[in-house]
Amino acid sequence: MELVEEQIVYVTKSIAKGLKSMHGHKPPIAHRDIKVENILMEDEHFKLADFGSCSTDTLDHANNNKNTISKKMELFEKYTTMMYRPPEMIDLYKKYPVDTKVDIWMLG
Hints:
CATH superfamily: Transferase(Phosphotransferase) domain 1
CATH topology: Transferase(Phosphotransferase), domain 1
CATH class: Mainly Alpha
Helix content: 40-55%
Strand content: 5-15%
Radius of gyration: 15 Å
Structural class: mainly alpha
Number of helices: 4
CATH architecture: Orthogonal Bundle
Number of domains: 1
């Protein structure tokens, strides 16, 4: 099935609305595994699925030691899909913060 641009925009807006709701919680909830396989269609409505990698944690690795970073990397390996991961989830030794912005990368 080939999608036209209008359909792609509709799907993207639908998922962005779901992310806005998640990110609007106190504390914000990051999905951390946005991918085609985690988007469901029901009656021409698109919804996020698979919340197993969701987290309210903001990971700031600036002060973490190698052992802590290694453990976080193991979790990302287990619960997120490599080809959709943003740079801050691929190389934690660069010590970029991991927060809700990762979902926006994955949505793109």
